[in-house]
Amino acid sequence: MHNYYTRQGGKSMLKRLSFALAVLFCIFHCWTAMFGAAAGIGQKAIHLGLVLIIFFLDYLAQEDRKWYCRVMDAFFILASAGSLIYIMSIDKTIDLRSGMIYTYDILFGVLLIITLIEATRRAVGKSLAIVVICFIVYGFMGQHMPGFLAHVGMDITRITSVVYLGTDGIYGTAIYASASYIVLFVILGAVFNETGVGDYFTKLASRAFGKFRGGPAKIAVVASGLFGSISGSAIANVIGTGTFTIPMMKKCGFEDEYAAAVEASASTGGQIMPPVMGATAFLIAEYLGIPYFDLVKAALIPAVLFYVAILMTVDLYARKNNIKGVPESELPTWKELVKNVYLILPLIYLIVSMSVFKMSVTKSGITSIIATIVCTLFSARNRITPAKLKKIVKASINGAKPVAIACGVVGIIIGIVMGSGLGFRMSSVLIQVSNGHLGILLVLTMVVSLILGMGVPTTAAYLMLALLVVPALKQMNVLPLAAHLFIFYFGIISNVTPPVALAAYAAAGVARCNPTKTGVFAFKLSLSGFILPFMFVYNPVLLMQGGALEILQSLITALLGIYSLSAALEKFVFKWNINQAERLVLLASALLLIIPGTITDLIGFAVLLGIFLIKTAEEKKGNYAKA
Questions:
Q1: Alpha carbon distances (Å) from 384 to 193, 225, 345
Q2: Helix or strand or coil: residue 170?
Q3: Domain-by-domain residue ranges, the chain?
Q4: CA dist., res. 344 & res. 338, Å (int)
Q5: Residue 623 CB burial class (10 angstroms; 0-12, 13-18, ≥19)
Q6: So what's the pLDDT on residue 313?
Q7: Phi and psi of 10, rounded to 5°?
Q8: What is the reported pLDDT for 223?
Q9: Which of 65, 103, 501, 554 has the fewest CB atoms within 10 Å, counting from its CB?
Q10: What letter does residue 333 receive in the DSSP assignment?
Q11: What is the block-wise mean pLDDT of the chain (627 residues), using blocks of 10 residues?
């Protein structure tokens, strides 16, 4: 066996088999999106089963694998295939069993659980794998747990019933979203990249913002927002756009760590930027039972505020340090952009199909893929060739693997939480600890969200928090939409929150600079992301929950508040340096403008205006030097 697999022919055969299954995976999802999902558990089981088989096949095909590692890989391939075949064979009879569990149920259920944990360790990281193991132990040992953690305990039969066969387990809501919606937008993102749509976003941002003060950083912010909305991964976004924007920022005079931090912050925000908002947004819409486009509309203002805050901070930094824009000769020409304007049509179609034609997410996704192919058909440079098609298939399966595995393994946690009743008890405990005070509960939720989000994919973090924390927020009469977006934001912001700021560390790797310092800068640049969730919980008008005038007033005061915060962070307002006392006054102005209420808004605006008038007067008197 060892000699067989070390032959080049064996490796090549495994790689071809893996690619063939990846092609089948893409065809299956495009077909079911167009003509309807597979019945029963089929769509979810085939989705997860193929991902796991391909995932371990790719390991088995690696050149330098030791023989015992290959044995393990082969075991997990067989376990994945076996559990898929078995669950498909009993799909139609599960509901007729009246709770009966058979030996084969337990066998294949345990095999799938073990396989998922190992796949999680390899694809996502040890953190989530350890969390899952802890929850399984908790399920078995519930009768020995103290206080609110105690429950009657779950034996192997009960765990199999809930996790493997139940609708709240592995084949529950999370994997349903991955199999039905998320995978389509992963494929769409791959198609966008290979047809030049993604590159067009970067060129458009370069042309629009590059010539202005601090232009390279503004290019990074806008390009990362556009690209990140499609990619759905902060780290992938950093690598995708950062390799272009970070060197440009460094060349124009930005400090290495600051350049990396700008890219990390902007890339992290891509997951909150409509219209796609990464993978987790589909889960939020599924949990809330609302049309996906309603969620997109609600998330628009906070996302815009997040990016405007970064742009404001970057602009103040550039003005303070006299950093110019990109030379005209290095920017793409308007002629080039107009010539290729058709590349933005697929994104426009995606938005219009959901907002105007009210298409389902799956129909919008698959028809957007078709629209992109048609739009680029007559361009020799951008049309899909066999070589590009191969890249699309590989990018699609590589993008789907970590999401599907995370959704599958989180199903184990969901099953244990639901089966043990922990979710209901956790809500009561949080309300007791906060003493019924919403502000304290929100701070507790923020801390828990940041901790669970560190080193864990946003999708997995969101699903755990939706079970454990959101019920408590709902009991405190927080709007369900605001509650889900609150935990979603903090699950994302953990990517730039030290000590485990993965997006910041990835950007530091691209910039070849100090990762710790980059993390601190990224945290500072993303500070608005810590404030915005509190703002829309206390003022749901920011989620489009109100009249036009209310929304306009809230938007204007939020922008002024964010500007005051940005100025305080940079110790620079309008065009002047500020001292420590003035910085504290600006922080007070930001707080007053952020707190909902006409009186606080007027006072906050008056304070900001007062700072401007004082600085203007000082300049006129010649007592203050311009920066």
A1: 11, 25, 16
A2: coil
A3: 2-174, 179-408, 546-627
A4: 10
A5: exposed
A6: 93
A7: -65, -40
A8: 86
A9: 103
A10: P
A11: 54 91 97 86 95 97 88 97 95 79 94 97 89 94 88 91 90 90 90 90 89 91 80 76 88 92 92 82 88 91 94 93 89 92 92 86 92 92 94 94 92 91 85 91 91 79 88 93 94 85 89 91 90 94 91 93 92 90 93 90 94 88 56
Burial tier of 405 (Cβ tally within 10 Å: 0-12, 13-18, 19+): buried
The closest alpha carbon to 102, from 168, 164, 171, belongs to 164
State the burial class of residue 16 (Cβ atoms within 10 Å of its Cβ: 0-12, 13-18, 19+): exposed
Distance CA 373, CA 187 (A): 12
pTM of the model: 0.86
Provide the 10 A C-beta neighbour count for residue 8.
Answer: 8
Angle between helices 422-433 and 438-453 (to 10 degrees): 130
Amino acid 514 reads: N
Contacts of 96 (CB under 8 A, 6+ apart): none
**409-434 confidence digits (pLDDT tens):** 999 999 999 888 888 888 888 888 99
Coil, helix or strand for 577?
strand
Nearest to 406 by CA among 499, 273, 280: 280
How much is the CA Rg of the chain, to the nearest whole Å? 26
3 state DSSP class of 492: helix
- Pull the structure tokens for residue 215: 């232009």
| Residues facing residue 573 across a β-bridge | 576
Alpha helices in 498-597 (DSSP H): 502-511, 515-525, 527-538, 548-570, 580-594
Q: Is 475 exposed, middle or buried (0-12, 13-18, 19+ CB in 10 A)?
A: middle
Distance CA 241, CA 224 (A): 6
Give the pLDDT score at 605: 94
Amino acid in position 455: G
Task: Tell me how long the chain is.
Answer: 627
The kind and range of the H/E element at 572 are strand 572-573
